[in-house]
Amino acid sequence: MTIDTTLLQDTALAFGVELGGEALERFDTCAKLLIERNKTMNLTSVTEPGEIVAKHFADSLSLIPFLRPLAGRHLIDVGTGAGFSGIPLLIANPALEITFLDATKKKVDFLAEVLRELGLEAHLLCLRAEEAGRDRAHRDRYDIAVARAVANLRELCEYCLPLVKPGGCFAAMKGPGGADEAAQAENAAARLGAVPVSRKSFILEGAGERTLLAYRKISATDERFPRRGGKIAKSPL
Ligand code: SAH
Questions:
Q1: Structural domain count of the chain
Q2: Mind listing the pLDDT tens digit for each residue in 130-184?
């Protein structure tokens, strides 16, 4: 084994997530692939097995108890990169229907390989989030949108909320600045038809302070959003 599976199992249990033998093997396979492929492509700056367990696997799993009360099984991981948080969520619960979205083709190709090696099924989407948000096939479709380390929350709301169906949720994974970002994103969330529903801050061993923020979309997204081109980043809501 490349990773300390006992440590991962214990950390997951602290989040109320039970990982069996098959799940632990899949996490190990995922770590091996990440380390191997990262030698030739820039997938992640986190490459040491202990760090992968804390910063990628455990951090992603911390979302599970937070998402539980929000309900819904069709999830989209926006700006998933090398598959975080989506891959750990899928390993922990293969019954989830997850769409992995990223604008970078080499990352989506890497994810196709990961899913194949893990023997897991999911949808892959190589597209910008704001393009997906204007596409009928993806707009107002998902029970839950999740995102980690993609953009400031104000921008992230405009990337993610159009993808969520009315009644569904958007969950952002943030670091120590999460509460400040939430205050600055109040207007963005409201204009995109969402209200804040929960917030949780905690210290994750080996990863530091984390803040999870959830919004519920209470009305369909206004036709003006998401905006095109660089407008979202240039003048965030
Ligand atoms: N969520 C992963 C990756 C974070 S890096 C993790 O936490 O490890 C940010 C990723 O978001 C990159 O892979 C980048 O290609 C993608 N990204 C940034 N803006 C995007 C957008 N507007 N649409 C789709 N993907 C985007």
A1: 1
A2: 999 999 999 999 999 999 999 999 999 999 999 999 999 999 999 999 999 999 9
The number of residues in the chain equals: 237
**110 within a domain of the structure (yes/no):** yes
Residue to mutate (ligand 1; options 102, 148, 173; most atoms within 8 A of CB): 102
0.90 cut: is pTM over it? yes
Question: Model confidence over 211-230: pLDDT tens digits?
Answer: 999 999 999 999 999 998 78
| 160 within some domain | yes
| pLDDT over threshold 80, residue 235 | yes
Residue 173 sits in a domain whose CATH number is 3.40.50.150
Residue 159 Cα: closest atom of ligand 1: 22
Question: Which residue range is the domain that position 206 belongs to?
Answer: 70-234
150 falls within a domain = yes
Cα distance between residue 110 and residue 183, in whole Å:
36
Rounded distance, CA 45 to CA 30, Å? 15
How are beta strands 142-148 and 164-174 bridged, if at all?
Answer: parallel
Would residue 61 count as lying in a domain? no
Here the tokens at position 3 are 């990773």
How high is the pLDDT of residue 229? 75
- For residue 18, the CA-to-ligand 1 centroid distance in Å is 28
Secondary structure E strands in 112-226: 123-126, 142-148, 164-174, 194-204, 208-217
**Protein residue whose Cα sits closest to atom 1 of ligand 1:** 80
- Give the pocket of ligand 1 (CB within 6 Å): 79-81, 84, 101-104, 107, 128-130, 148-150, 159
